[in-house]
Amino acid sequence: MPMAATHEPRPVPFAMRDPLRVPRERYYDREFFELEKEHLWPRVWQMACRLEEIPRPGDFVEYEICDQSILVVRQDDRSVKAFHNACRHRATQLCEGSGRLTGKQIVCPFHGWRWNLDGSNSFVYGADGFAPECLRPEDIRLRECQVDTWGACVWINMDPDARPLREALSPAAELLDAVGAEHMRVWWWKETILNANWKMAQEAFHEGYHVAATHPQLTFGLGEDYPTGNVEYTAFGNGHARFQGRFDPTAGGVSQGRGAEAFLERSRTLWEGQDAMTLERDLHVFRGVKNRVPPGEDFATAAIKALFDYAEGAGIPLRPTPEGVRLWGGQVFLFPNFMILPQFGNALSYRVRPHGDDPEQCRFEVWSLTMYPEGEEPGRAALKGRFAPDDTDNWGLIPRQDFGNIARQQRGVHSRGHREHRLATEWERAISNMHVELDRHLAR
User: Fold this and answer.
1) How many DSSP H helices and E strands does the chain contain?
2) In the chain, what are the domain boundaries?
3) Which class in CATH covers the domain with range 168-443?
4) What kind of fold does domain 46-157 have according to CATH?
5) Could you write out the DSSP letters of every residue in 342-398?
6) Which residues contact 144 (CB under 8 A, 6 or more apart)?
7) pTM score, two decimals?
8) Quick one: which of 10, 21, 9 has its CA closest to 435?
9) Pseudo-torsion of CA 312, 317, 320, 324, nearest 10°?
10) Could you read off the pLDDT of 213-269 as tens digits, one per residue?
């Protein structure tokens, strides 16, 4: 009886031999970068766009990842399809950026071939000049990617045999369902180019350990006495992870027991520092109850109750579960490159991708999300622009502090005195978990 074929794992250069140590070459080595291009990005679910970027049939968005371009198109029945963005004739890129397809037709700018929204070919100029076998309808359809939606986003996978999206995102998706991620819409959306590997850039947001040194204004005078143990870290299968406070966010977090002024000061600092997670609207609600909290009652509890009351009256779908409330002020990471940091009815969201073909540059996108009154959601979401990481007009203090450290890290990995990152067992476990999952993809 013939033996079943076996598949040996592919050797991975600079592999994770120790979960507490990350070889520095993973952040700049060309061979490692090429393996990611070949064995990670074409075979993993990744967030391609938000649904409000393509609100109407015929709207499209181009999603780029390394040397691949994917065209995401809203269909007549409100569903979404995703196509490899190349003409079936001579590979011309069909669409760039985002927009609306004239006459609901995808048109090649080179020779005028056309396709319907569903990818079926609708016109070949000079068709009588081609052999019939070159124009079989199924052969000249646009090549599709797998596509699905979750969390008000469109997700694509170039692998036709990939497992279902919800299976791949579990259990992280369920955590974000608990905070109402599907009800969040764009408040603003910007991007920057960082001189850092995509993994280096996102790892800065996998832990709260950096707050005391990077964001001293958020410690409110505690400095190095700011507690590292007030955050709980969990690494999941599939490369996902989360961190969340060990405290009840409705009781004020780090400001607990310090009264109204401490709670309001923290809220103001977060709003002014990034205009995300805490918005001016929230601060206005909190200030409105400052002088109406009876003696002995916890101000933070009263402030959060006022926020829920406001949301109910305004028709804002702020209905997190108790477990969802515990995630406020924390983060959920969805492998390989997407993050959501929820708080109140808002969230920060990050997507980090390689920039072009440079292992040491990345596109870092930032969304500030919020919940709008039902029926009053904004129109089509659009990128506000690409801004330098030190642009004080377009980035608040908090992201500027992070961006500066990320670039310094990337320079540091080239130091002859540095061979590997050494990770904390507790608060940097998400970093290790991400790298282990990455190796699993590269070795398949």
Assistant:
1) 12, 20
2) 46-157, 168-443
3) alpha beta
4) Rieske Iron-sulfur Protein (2.102.10)
5) EETTEEEEEEEEEETTEEEEEEEEEEEEEPPPTT---SS----EE--TT-TTTS-HH
6) 81, 82, 83, 84, 119
7) 0.94
8) 21
9) -140
10) 999 888 877 878 777 778 899 999 999 999 998 766 554 443 444 588 889 998 999
